[in-house]
Amino acid sequence: MNLPTRREREKADLKERILGAARTLLVEGGREAVTMREVARRVEYSPAALYQYFPDKESIIHELCITDFSLLASVLLALPQDGGPLALLCRTGFAYLQFARDYPEHYRFMFLTPTGGSPPDSPEQRADPATNAYVFLLGVVEVAMGEELLRPELSDPHLVTQSLWAAAHGVAALDVCRRSSEAWLDFRAFEERADAIIHMSILAFARDTALAQRIFRQVQKEQRGG
Questions:
Q1: Domain boundaries, the chain
Q2: CA atoms within 13 A on the CB side of 62
Q3: Residue 207, burial from CB neighbour count under 10 angstroms (0-12, 13-18, 19+)
Q4: So what CATH class is 1-55?
Q5: Distance between CA atoms of 151 and 202, rounded to whole angstroms?
Q6: What is the band of 226 on the pLDDT scale with cuts at 50, 70, 90?
Q7: Nearest-CA neighbor of 216 among 93, 125, 33?
Q8: Which value, to the nearest 10 degrees, does the dihedral of the CA atoms of residues 101, 217, 219, 71 take?
Q9: Neighbouring residues of 129: CB distance < 8 A, sequence distance ≥ 6
Q10: Which pTM was predicted?
Q11: Band of pLDDT at residue 187, cut at 50, 70 and 90
Q12: Rg for the chain (alpha carbons), in Å?
């Protein structure tokens, strides 16, 4: 196996710093805040030299979209598959919420920045669960429907997928955007809120609530290292 040279490592590190600076600018001020000059200033690099890596700011933002959405997709693809689709739905919920906690600036850019993040734009990438986490979740929902594990009146897999996503997104967004100094609110711990939304969601959508209860408890124990 060929190890990257020092020059290659330096180039990769600088590229990551460029993307990080652009992500921060997008979160702070939207698309208009991203300029080649400001990105260069933040990475302490000359604007002229920055063009060796990216021809313009749109190419930086495009690369950032691919990088961040692929990262989320890779997290989901790495989840254990055992236990069936209901278990995988629970794991997906936990992983999504943990992603928001581990990568708050990525999450803000992807889901909370107007005209900021957007999924891959080619048809091939949009249909690929390795680059589009929505496709991954939709696939799990479709398998659950095919195995008649969801309530019979739930016939639209996209509606179910988007409803599950919306529930998890609400918890993630509150965690990412909430100020730590909000003394007026006795905010529950992240783990409690994550458990509650995933538990309520799987019980609401499952055909057999007793089975869903057992599966949730198993995955919850798994998440806690038990």
A1: 1-55, 64-223
A2: 9
A3: middle
A4: mainly alpha
A5: 11
A6: low
A7: 93
A8: -30
A9: 73, 76, 77, 135, 136, 139
A10: 0.89
A11: confident
A12: 20
CA separation for the pair 23, 45 (Å, rounded): 17
Q: Which of 125, 97, 121 is nearest to 111 (CA)?
A: 97
Q: Is the dihedral of CA 110, 132, 21, 26 positive or negative?
A: negative
Q: Which two tokens stand for residue 110?
A: 């992807």
Longest dimension (CA), the chain: 63
Look up the CATH number of domain 64-223.
1.10.357.10
pLDDT grade, residue 121 (50/70/90)? low
Q: List pLDDT tens digits, range 48-68.
A: 888 989 999 999 998 998 899
For residue 177, count CB atoms less than 10 angstroms from its CB and return exposed for 0-12, middle for 13-18, buried for 19 or more. exposed
